[in-house]
Amino acid sequence: MSPRYFLRSLLLLILAAFSANASNWLYLAKLSSVGSISDEETCEKLKGLIQRQVQMCKRNLEVMDSVRRGAQLAIEECQFQFRNRRWNCSTLDSLPVFGKVVTQGTREAAFVYAISSAGVAFAVTRACSSGELDKCGCDRTVHGVSPQGFQWSGCSDNIAYGVAFSQSFVDVRERSKGASSSRALMNLHNNEAGRKAILNNMRVECKCHGVSGSCEVKTCWKAMPPFRKVGNVLKEKFDGATEVEQKKIGSTKVLVPKNSQFKPHTDEDLVYLDSSPDFCDHDLKNGVLGTSGRHCNKTSKAIDGCELMCCGRGFHTDEVEVVERCSCKFHWCCFVKCKQCHRVVEMHTCR
Amino acid sequence: MAGAIIENMSTKKLCIVGGILLAFQVIAFLVGGLIAPSPTSTVSYLANKCVDVRKNPKNKWHLPWGNNPCEKIRNFDEAVSRQIEANDIVFSIHAPHPPNEMSPWFQFMLYILQVDVAFKLDNQIKNNAEITFNVSLGYRDDMVSEWQGMAYAEETRKLKCVFNYPKTKDNEGSYYECDVLPFMEIGTVAHKFYLINIRLPVHEKKGINVGIGDIRDIRLVGIHQNGGFTKVWFAMKTFLTPSIFIIMVWYWRRITMMTRAPVLLEKVIFALGISMTFINIPVEWFSIGFDWTWMLLFGDIRQGIFYAMLLSFWIIFCGEHMMDQNERNHFSSYWKQVGPIVVGSFCLFVFDMCERGVQLKNPFYSIWTTDVGTELAMAFIIVAGICLCLYFLFLCFMVFQVFRNISGKQSSLPAMSKARRLHYEGLIFRFKFLMLITLACAAMTVIFFIISQVTEGHWKWGGYTVELNSAFFTGIYGMWNLYVFALMFLYAPSHKNYGEDQSNGDLGVSSGEELQLTTTITHVDGPTEVYKLARKEAQE
C-alpha cells in the first residue's frame, strides 16, 4: 500500500462521513498515516464510526490501536484468501470500502464481516498478551472472571476479553438497529461466526509439573491460532456458506436455509441472503473492478485458471523478465543476503 | 501387635468411626471443590520486540512499557526497512501484566516458551535446529526503583517443528507447529515484578541461531499456583498436622505402655505416621516471608519419602499376615521387596536433584534440553519404572499368597480349637479390612486422577462451579491423611490387655503371628493354652 493510496483513501474517508454501512469502521485500517489514536478528540474525527462506536472509542482509547490493527489484519487476510478469485477483496477508491458487494447481503459480505470481527478479537487479544492493555482477562466486566481477582484465582484467558470487545464494538451497529432486519441478523450471525473461528480453533497445550515433573499436576492453557489459520477456516466456511431467508418463529425472527432440504446452519457457518454478481465486468456503480487486467494461470482448471478468471474473454500472454532473489542467506530476523537471478516467465493477463 | 482395636471394636462403633472419617473425607473434597480456585493459573505473554539502540551496557534492561520504555517495533518487516540487525533485538516480557502484582502466595513460577516461525520456501527450519538465547531475569518491588538482576544464562533448546501444509510458495507465511520449550522454573515468588529479556544472538561462524527459520514472535506462558489455592492448602495442612501428630503420640504411648517390645508392623505404622506428619508440617508458611527457592525440591523429597514409606508398609503388612510359619518380624527379611522401592526412590531423587536441584542455581536449566541429559533422565525414570513394576509384582504375589493361605485356613477353621479359630479369624478380618480400604483409597486416587486428566478443570453445577482439580488435590490429600489416621487408630493395640501381653512376650515366640492373639483368647483360655498352642506350632 503506497502513501499515495492512503492519501486518496483518506480523502475518501472524509467523503464517506455520512454513508451508513455496518462495516465502515474498517476504514480504520486505512488510518495508519494518522498516527496512534491517543486522545478523545481523535475519536470524533475517525470516519466510519457510528456514534456509539465513537463513545466506545472514547472509553477505550488504548484499545483503538488494536481495533485498527485488527481491521488491517482482516483486509490483508481477506486479500490473501481471495488472491486467486475473481473478487480479490480489493479495497476500492470509492465508497464503501469493499464496494457495493459488501453492502448487499452476499457471500463476500458474509466473509468480510466474519473476518473483520475475528480480526478485532485477534488483535485485542494479542495486545492483551503483550501487556499493552490494562483490563483484559482481569476485567471484571467481562464474564467468566471470578470476583476475587488475580491473586486469588488468576485471570481468565485474554481471548475472553478480545471476543467480548469485538462483540461490543463490531456488533453495536446491528444491535442499535434492533436486530430485526434480515441484514442485521445476517451480519450478527457472521460476526459471531468469525469469532467462533478463533474460539473453536484454540490450541490446547499442557505442561506437567508435579513431583519430578510428573503429570500429577498438569496445567493446560489455550493458545490462539495464527490468523492465517482463522482465514483458512473462514474461507472454507465461505465455500460452504448457506443461503438463508428470514422467517418468523413465534415472536422472534430467525434465519433459516432457503432450501429446506439443506441441513440448518450452525453457529460457525457463514450465511448470506443475496447471490453474488459474477464479478466479471468493470462496474464502478456497484464497486466491482472486473477481472480485466488480472493475472491468471493458464494450466489451471479452477477459478484462478484463465478460462474462468477471464470470463471467457480470453487473455494475452507476455514474456516478462523477472528479477528474483536466489541462493539467499538469512538470519532469523532482518538480515538477508541474496544474489539476483533473472528469469523469463510467461505472464497471462485477462483481456 | 496384640489385639488391635479394630478386632475388639463392636460393629456399631466401627461404623460410627467409619462414618466420621467419611464425613471428613467429604469435607476435604468440598473444601477443594467449592472454596478453592483451580490449583494453578496461566498467564500468556507475547514478547515485545525492543530495539537495543542505546548499546549502553549500563542501561541493560529493556522494559516494554511504563516509564522509560524501550523502543519497540511491531514486526520484523519494520526492522528490515530500518536495517536493524538480529543482535540488536531484545524480546522483553514483564510479568505479570499491568496492573497486577506477583505474590509470594503463588509459591512457584514456571515459564515455557513458544516460538512462532513462519514458513518461507528459501528460509526453512533446518533439521535438528537449535535455538540459543541469552536470558536475563530481573526483579523489583515497586514501579520506580531500578531492576535488580536475578539470573543470567545462555541456554540452548532444540527446536522441534513440523509444517502441516505442503511446502509450496502458496503456503509461505503459515506457521510451523513447534513443541513448547521449557524455559524457566523458580521455586519461590518473593518479588512483585519480574522482567525477562531474551536475545537470540546470531553467530554465523559458530553456527549459533542459524537455520532457525523466519521467527515472527516469541510467546511465553507463565504458570503459577493460585493464591487462593495456596491459602486453602495451607489451612488444610495446618489443620491436619496436629490431628495426625496427636494420634501418632497416642499410638506410640499405647505401644510403649505394653511391656513387650513393639513388633515390626507397629514400628512401620509409626514410621508411616511420621512421614505423613513430615509432609503435613506447613513449613511452606515460611515461603511467604522468606525467599527460599529450595521449597519446591523439599516438597518433592517429602512426598517421595511418604510414597516410599506407604509402599513399604503394604509389603510388610502383607508379609506379617502371611499366616505361614516363617520367621519375619524383621526389616531385613523384606529386603527383596523393599529393595526396589529404595532403588526406585533413589533414582527419582537423583533425577530430581539433577533437574530441580540445578534449577536452584540456574532457573533456566532443564535436563531435557541436551541429548546426554535426556538419556540420563530417561535412564533414571526407566529404572524407577522397572522398580515400581517389580514392586507391584511382589505385592500382588504376596497378596495372592495371603489369600491362598486364608482360604486354606478358612476351610480348616471349624476343626480348630476356639482359641486358634478366633486368632485366625482376627487375622483374616484385619487383613481383609485393610485390603478393602487400601484398595478403595487407591481406586479413588486413580479414578480422580483420570477424571482430572480427562475432563476440563471445573464443572458447572447449578449456580456453583466445582473446581475438579482442586477437589482432587485436597480430597486425595485428605484421604491419605485419613487413611494413616485410621490405620494408627484402628491398628493400635487394644487397651484391654496390657497385663496379658507380658505373658505373650515371655513366651519368647517372636513371630508376629503368635503375638497376635486377641485378648478374648487369652481371657478364655489363659496363658497356658497359648503356651501349648505355641509349642504345637513350633513342632510343626
TrEMBL record, chain A:
Coiled-coil stretches: none
Signal peptide coordinates: 1-22
One Pfam family named in its UniProt record: wnt
GO CC list: extracellular space
Keywords: Developmental protein, Disulfide bond, Extracellular matrix, Glycoprotein, Lipoprotein, Secreted, Signal, Wnt signaling pathway
Entry GO MF terms: cytokine activity; frizzled binding
GO biological process, one term: cell fate commitment
UniProt cross-references to InterPro entries, sorted A to Z: Wnt (IPR005817), Wnt4 (IPR009142), Wnt_C (IPR043158), Wnt_CS (IPR018161)
Presence of keyword Cell division: no
Subcellular location: Secreted, Extracellular space, Extracellular matrix
Organism superkingdom: Eukaryota
Record's function text: Ligand for members of the frizzled family of seven transmembrane receptors. Plays an important role in embryonic development.
Sequence similarity: Belongs to the Wnt family.
Protein name, UniProt field: Protein Wnt
Source organism of this protein record: Eublepharis macularius
From TrEMBL, chain B:
Keywords associated with the record: Developmental protein, Golgi apparatus, Membrane, Transmembrane, Transmembrane helix, Wnt signaling pathway
Segments forming domain Wntless GOLD: 49-225
Membrane-related topology note: Multi-pass membrane protein
InterPro entries registered for this protein in UniProt: WLS-like_TM (IPR047843), WLS_GOLD (IPR053936), Wntless (IPR009551)
CC annotations in GO: Golgi membrane
Residue ranges of every copy of the Wntless-like transmembrane domain listed in the record: 226-495
GO biological process: one example: Wnt protein secretion
Location in the cell: Golgi apparatus membrane
GO terms assigned for molecular function: Wnt-protein binding
Keyword Membrane (UniProt): yes
TM helices/strands, residue ranges: 14-36, 232-252, 264-283, 295-317, 338-358, 378-406, 427-451, 471-492
Family under the similarity heading: Belongs to the wntless family.
Protein name in the entry: Protein wntless homolog isoform X1
Native source species: Eublepharis macularius (Leopard gecko)
Lineage per the UniProt record: Eukaryota, Metazoa, Chordata, Craniata, Vertebrata
